[in-house]
Amino acid sequence: MEKANNQQANGIETKQGCLRYMLAAMLFCGVALNYIIKVMLSVAIVAMVKPHGHSDGSNNTNISTEDTCPGGEEESEETGQGGTFEWDGEMQGHILASYFYGYVATQLLGGWTADKLGGRWVYALGVMVTGILALFCPLAANLHPTAFMALRALQGAFSGVILPATNVLMSKWFAIEERPKISGLVFGGNYAGTLISMGLSGVLVDVMDWTSVFYVYGGACILYVLPWLYLSSDTPEVHPRIGEKERDYIINGRREDIAKMEDQSQEQESFPVPWLSILTSLPFWANVVLQVGFTWLSYTLMTELPTYSKNILHFSLTKSGLISAFPYVFAWISGGVFGTVSSWLQARGYFSRMTAYIVFNGIAAIGPAIFLLLITLLGCDSTAIVVCFVAIATLKTGIYGGSMLNNLDLAPNFVGSTTGILYTLVNLTGVVSPIVNGAITTGQQTLTKWHTVFYISIGTCVVPFIFFWIFGSVEEQTWNQPKGKEEVRKDSCKTSLKERRSVSYGSRSSPVSSLQDLHT
Questions:
Q1: 65 lies in some domain
Q2: Distance CA 458, CA 297 (A)
């Protein structure tokens, strides 16, 4: 009774199941804001710089007309438009990459700090400071490009802690059986943020000017933090407004994680982060390689699709932005669908967890690879190519029904640390892929060069998927346990590969017939 009165006094009487979904919605918004900040400069920079003509400073007179698409008349209407900064293509590349230098640098720190101090404040600090720094970006850009790059790198550094902290919070707030569904909903913010940033930024620039992009998105980040701090806590155990039934449901749903963490706390002095074991764990690297490959494709689409649409398909700048944003509408929806379907199949016993990972990872890898190959065969059929890009963006979200949260399976005691390593390497592709793709296409905006870009992306989808299929695992790793308990787990790990091979995919007679069986 006293607890119920306290809840009513605080203004929220949480019904069973309500609060954790409110938290998931807030996490979705925060992830979306993170991606809005990440993507916004790709659109804003077009309005910031003076146009340099169509040749990009290179001699393309020897390019065969058979290797280009007809059109391009719409571009002439925009030649006289542009901003005040005289940044050439190379300088623009460095400016766009500067965010990712900082973003990569703090992934591990963000995960480790969230593990030690709790995810709530680490997450809030990342979003709020990123927003504050956005307000100063126009001033830095007018001072000097180096000042602008430094500020964007600092922005990336604070943004870099958001996703690792998100993983830590999800490990505390959601039962194991809910995680595939919730991960699809929460990380769908990636696509929602990209969609909003690409679509709305052009409108803001047209209605006001390029500075409005930084002011609007920066202000949104700052305002977001207030309801986040009110609604969230590090764990459901300490939340002042959560219902008892919901709290007990969450705790029971992650009871094995809690038991493992209690073991850890009892032997904390002799149980530091096992860095060497993590870095030499083949299942851990299988997941890293898989997600690095998928992220390469994501960054290729995010950073290169507007350029491809404008220079190869010859859409106008405005139309190019809308076309680039269009696939993310479907990706936003499909991420939640794949996660929900995966949870349902596992809960009903149709798929073991490993089977679900293989099937949905396969959708995310093989599907986009097929459509990328199809694009290279379509030539200049712009309508069919746009349909292919929609299919690619939709299918690659299959990973949300697959191994997106595989690090929670492998080492629930070290979610922050393993996630930090994962996201550090994953987001290096944000630096490397634009450099590689730019080197291929700079001064050579031809079908042949862009097909090379797509072939590379096909490889980054298919090869990592095969690697994960062979070496991936859902078993808790021995190094996740305190010293002296490794032997208890060895027999289980030795039989892991044999058990996985014995799984009858799609059969209810699978050795692992329910989510609960995976943890017994």
A1: no
A2: 8
Domain count, the chain: 2
The dihedral through the CA atoms of 79, 81, 86, 92 has a sign that is: negative
Determine the Cα angle at 219 with ends 214 and 224, to 5°.
130
In a domain, 36, yes or no: yes
Signed CA dihedral, 500, 504, 505, 509: sign only: negative
Claim to verify: residue 231 and residue 291 sit in the same structural domain = no
- Cα(111)–Cα(418) distance, integer angstroms: 8
User: Do 210 and 307 fall within a single domain?
Assistant: no
The token duo for 423 is: 């996201």
Cα 498 to Cα 89: distance, rounded to the nearest angstrom: 53
Q: Is 227 within 8 Å of 154 (Cβ atoms)?
A: no
What range defines the domain where residue 99 resides? 19-51+87-243
Lowest-pLDDT range, 24-33, 342-351, 379-388, 434-443? 434-443
Question: Quick one: pLDDT band at residue 88, thresholds 50, 70, 90?
Answer: low
pLDDT reported for residue 55: 40
Q: Do 300 and 431 share a domain, yes or no?
A: yes
C-alpha–C-alpha distance, residues 53 and 80, integer Å: 9
Instruction: Clarify whether residues 426 and 308 are in a common domain.
Output: yes
How does pLDDT run across 177-231, given as a tens digit for each residue? 777 677 777 877 887 888 888 878 877 887 888 899 999 999 999 999 999 988 8
Tell me the three state secondary structure of residue 247: helix
Contact 184, 338 (CB under 8 A): yes
Q: Which residue, of 196, 226, 243, is where some domain finishes?
A: 243
Return the number of other C-beta atoms located less than 10 Å from residue 492's C-beta: 12
Distance (Å, rounded) from C-alpha 494 to C-alpha 517? 18
Q: Does 12 fall in a domain?
A: no
Q: Does 179 lie in the same domain as 306?
A: no
Q: Which amino acid is at 5?
A: N
The tokens describing 72, both together, are 């391009």
What CATH number does the domain containing 289 carry? 1.20.1250.20
How far apart, in Å, are the Cα atoms of 282 and each of 108, 263, 286? 19, 24, 6
In a shared domain, residues 374 and 233: no
Separation between Cα atoms, residue 76 and residue 186, nearest integer Å: 42
